[in-house]
Amino acid sequence: MNTTELHRKYNLEKYELGTGKAIWGAIWGAKAYKKSIKQKIFLDTEFIDNGKTIELISIALVKSNGESLYCVSNQFNKNNLDTWLIDNVIANLGDVESISRQKIKEEILRFIGTEKTEFWAYYSSYDWVAFCQLFGKMLDLPSNYAYYCNDLKQLANSNDFDTKTIKDDGKHNALSDALWNKEVYEAMNNTCQK
C-alpha cells in the first residue's frame, strides 16, 4: 500500500515533512489500524546472525486461540552455523520436514489469512526482519499485516512486569518460544488489568 492509499484509507491529510504534522498523521494512521485489528500473532524465529545479515533457520507463529504454525527452512547455509547454534538451535529443531522459504511464506499466508493482524515477539527486532524478508522488502508485506512488530520486552519494562515469572522450557526452539510469548502477553494483560 503506498502513501496515497494509506492517506485515503485512514482519511489523513497530507502533511509536509519537517512540520511535525507528518508524525501525528502517522500516529493517527497507526491508531486507526490498531482499532481494526482482528487477530494477534505471537512469533519467534531462530536465525544465523553474522553482523550483516539475518538468515532464517526456523519460524513459529501462534494465534491467540493457541493454533500454531512451525516451519524449518532448508535454505540456510549450514556452513554459517557456529557451535552455539548447532548445540542450542539445530539440536532443538525437532522432527520436522524442512521446506523452502517460498513454501514457508505460502504457509504463513494460509495460516494468517486475510484478517487484520498485529504481531508480538520478545526482543522482536531480528525476528521481525527475518519474518519480513520472507516477503521481500517490508513494504511487500500483505496489506492486512501491521508494518511493525510489538515488542513484549518493551511492554514488560513499561509495566514493571518480570517475564522470568513465566517459566519456559529453556530450549531455543521457535515454537516453544512463540508459545511462551503468548503466555507472557496474557500474563501481562491479566496483571495490568487488575
Summed up:
By secondary structure, the protein is α/β, with parallel strands linked by helices. It has seven helices and six strands.
What does this structure look like?
With 194 residues, this protein is an alpha/beta fold. The chain folds into two domains: 3-35, no CATH class; 39-193, Nucleotidyltransferase, domain 5 (2-Layer Sandwich), CATH 3.30.420.10. The protein has helices spanning 3-10, 21-35, 83-88, 101-112, 125-133, 152-158, 174-193; strands at 39-49, 54-63, 68-73, 98-99, 117-121, 145-151. It has a six-stranded mixed beta sheet with strand order 4-3-2-1-5-6, with helices on both faces. Strand 1 and strand 2 (54-63) form a beta hairpin. The model is unreliable at 11-29 (pLDDT under 50).
